Every structure is written in C-alpha cells, then in structure tokens.
Amino acid sequence: MSATAPEKRLYIKTYGCQMNVYDSERMADVLAPLGYGVTDSPEGADLVVLNTCHIREKATEKVYSELGQIKRMKAARAEAGGAMTIAVAGCVAQAEGEEIMRRQPAVDLVVGPQAYHQLPELIARAHRARGERLAADFAPEDKFDALPAERRPEGVTAFLTVQEGCDKFCTFCVVPYTRGEEWSRPVEAIVAEAEALAAKGVREVTLLGQNVNAYAGEGGLAGLVRRLAKIRGLDRIRYTTSHPRDMDEALIAAHGEVEALMPYLHLPVQAGSDKVLKAMNRAHTAESYLRLVEKIRAARPDIALSGDFIVGFPGERDADFEATLALVREVGYASAFSFKYSRRPGTPAAAMPGQVADEVKAERLARLQALLDEQQRAFNAAQAGRTLPVLFEKPGRHPGQLVGRSPYLQSVHVEAPERLIGQIVPVAIEASAKNSLSGQVAMAAA
C-alpha cells in the first residue's frame, strides 16, 4: 500500500471472554498489512467483524439482532457507491456455520476461532465474489503459524494465548464443540512472543487458555511460567482460566517459588454439591477442591482466590445450593463470577430433567452474590494499612490520577505523575471499595 493510499476502516465488536479479546487483537494484526485501521464505529466501516461468544444465554440471537442493524448500514453504504464486508467470527460462527449466512444473507464471511489467520485471503475472495466463504475447521497450529510475528500492545499489560480448546466436556458448556480439543502452543513460540512484548514495554502478561493449566508444552504450565519469568522486563505473570483437575504439584510449587507469578488464582468450582458437580461432569468433588485450596495456600499463604459459580443447574435442590454457600464460606474468595444456569442447545444439560424455575434461580443467585460481595469487600478492606506493589497502567478519570493493578488484580487509584506509568511502585493503601483500592505512593518512590 502506498503512503498516499486511503486507509480502509475495520470495526471489530468483541463479545464474551478474554480469549476473544486476544483473538480480536490478532485479527486487527493480520488485517493491518492490507491497509485496515481500526475504527470505533461500524458506520462507514469497510469491514465489520463480530467476534462472537456462545456461552451466555441468547448469545446467538444477540448476534443476529446486531447483524440486522449492520445490514442496513451495508445497504446505505452501497446506495452511496461504497461497499461493506461483514464477517462473523468466534464461537457462534463455529457452532452455527453456514446457517448464519442462510439466516442473514448480508454476511459475507463466517470464520471459526481457528481460522481468522485466513481473513486476508477470504476477504480477497469475497471481494471477487467467488470461492470459499466458510472457514471454521482448521487446525490451531495453522492459525498460530500464520499470524504476524509483530504485535502492537496498547499498554504495559497484554494477553498471551498459550492453549486452546477443551477436553473436559462439562455438561453445561459448548466450548468443546466450538473450540475443539485441547491444543498447546510450542514453548519457544510463546517465549518469543513474550520477549517481543517485553521489548515493547509490556511488564505483565496474562496467559490464556480455555483450560490454561492443561498446557501440555514441555514442562507444562509450571515450566512455561518459569521460562517466562526469566525474560528481562517481564515482571508479572498471571494465567486464566484454570481447571481444578489440572492443578498439578509442579504448578502449585511454582506459586510459592516464582516471584513473578502473581498471588491471584482464578480456580472455578461451579458448585459445592457433589451431586451437582457429578451432573456437571466436573470430575472433582467439593472435598477435593477444598483440599486443593489448602495445598495452594500452603505453598503461597497470601494467595487470593477467584471462582466461577452456576446456580440453578438442573436437579439442584435447596440442600445442594446450601452446600455451595458452605463451600464459599469455607474458601473465602477475593472475587468471583456467578451466573444463573442457562440452557445451551446441544449440551447434555439442556435435556436434563429437573430444570429449575427462573424465579428460584434468581433468588439463589441474589443470595450467593450477596455473600460473594461481602467477601470481596472484606478482602479489599483488609488491604488498608498495607503497602502493595502497584503496576501503573494509565491515567485515571481525574486530573493527576493514575490507575494501576495490585498483585491481587485490584484496581488501585492514586494521585501520581504520569512518568510512573509502566512502573511498579509501592503504594500505601488507605481505603477500599467493592472493586478498587486507593492510596498514596510510598515516599521512597515519590
């Protein structure tokens, strides 16, 4: 593209998880050489990509509703003598396939999670009005091998996908069907990407995977963490999302031995009733989860735990829900995500007997969230009076304010000069709210 050629406008709307955030970033990367620059609005865009998620209730219908609005923009663009290409990517694309183009003919491309590296070729074919329009069944190796080596991080933190897919087949989840079997990137490829990020000023990476601690590269996730911790300038490492059955002894030990590995662990349990856990096909019990938490805390006493919970799973009785509350009280979470069970077509749980009434699910969720909120506020309040190392990421909403992250992933608001962005600075914590902390830069770092 010549220096005077007009930039083509790319609009990406991202639904759902951090994996999709990462995938959207990489889609922008693979399209940049074609002259596409990211824009904040679909109106007037040359290419619109909906990077979809299939986890939440009514997710598919939300995509079709969005497509209806974009179709009208595409028609208006055509009337004005322009053109708009519409692509649907992500898990809904994988699950729905050609049905998307049947229901919404304005869609030009359907690109599954493993095929977005082929966007340039597919777009060229679409522009010529011929060839394949559906790309949803490619090996993950092809996807990562075809990505540009260069990434353009937007700040001092970055996501880094190391593993994709799921072999667990929880009965409520569509991920094994939309993301495929578990697959791990080679260690050297991950290390090279992390080194490049560090060279561009990234101080913290979050390793991503549907089952990130099932990472099967040499040395497992523990070995990978130890390799990444040696990279100069890369001072903080996190990972998500993990599964209790893949939390091995080596990874537990790494939490106690690797300084760069942050003392914050997202370890979803989903329920506290063994009957419900068995129906979910989680392959762990409440007791085994609690013993695992004991081991982790023995290795890293200051670790903060986060979790996921589903209430109202088919067959869940009052006693089962009370068991979940009991587990929450015993563990003590620093934060958590909790949801009402929603039926996902094609999953075993959708056809299970004993579907719980929505009003019962709503009441249980309210009780669970009240307990989790209480624990989160208590954890945050306990930081007052401590001095925590904070990685400053960006300016705050108020003049002279910076926002950073504590080791426990809390937002920390501090009055400080912008020259501290990108630095890890000791902060004396003075106050807390449900989702954040505030304080003053320690005198020695001011």
What's the helix and strand layout?
Blueprint lengths: L7 E7 L3 H14 L4 E3 L8 E6 L6 H21 L5 E6 H6 L1 H6 L5 E3 L7 H9 L6 E2 L4 H6 L11 E5 L1 E2 L10 H4 L4 E2 L2 H13 L4 E5 L11 H9 L7 E5 L8 H9 L6 E3 L7 H7 L5 H14 L4 E8 L6 H14 L3 E6 L17 H24 L5 E9 L5 E5 L5 E5 L8 E9 L3 E6 L5
Parallel strand pairs: 1-2, 1-3, 3-4, 4-5, 5-6, 7-10, 10-11, 12-13, 13-14, 17-19
Antiparallel strand pairs: 8-9, 15-16, 15-18, 16-17, 18-19
Helix pairs in contact: 9-10, 13-14
Structure description:
By secondary structure, the chain is of the alpha/beta class. It has 4 domains: 8-142, Methylthiotransferase, N-terminal domain (Rossmann fold), CATH 3.40.50; 149-245, Transcription Regulator spoIIAA, CATH 3.30.750.210; 263-379, Transcription Regulator spoIIAA (2-Layer Sandwich); 387-445, Nucleic acid-binding proteins (OB fold (Dihydrolipoamide Acetyltransferase, E2P)), CATH 2.40.50.140. The protein has helices at residues 18-31, 59-79, 91-96, 98-103, 119-127, 140-145, 175-178, 187-199, 220-228, 249-257, 274-280, 286-299, 318-331, 358-381, and strands spanning 8-14, 36-38, 47-52, 85-90, 109-111, 134-135, 157-161, 163-164, 183-184, 204-208, 236-240, 264-266, 304-311, 335-340, 387-395, 401-405, 411-415, 424-432, 436-441. The strands form 5 sheets. Strands 2-1-3-4-5-6 form a 6-stranded parallel beta sheet, with helices on both faces. It has a 5-stranded mixed beta barrel with strand order 15-16-17-19-18. A 3-stranded parallel beta sheet has the order 7-10-11, sandwiched between helices. Strand 18 and strand 19 form a beta hairpin. Helix 9 (220-228) packs parallel to helix 10 and helix 13 (318-331) packs parallel to helix 14. The termini are far apart.
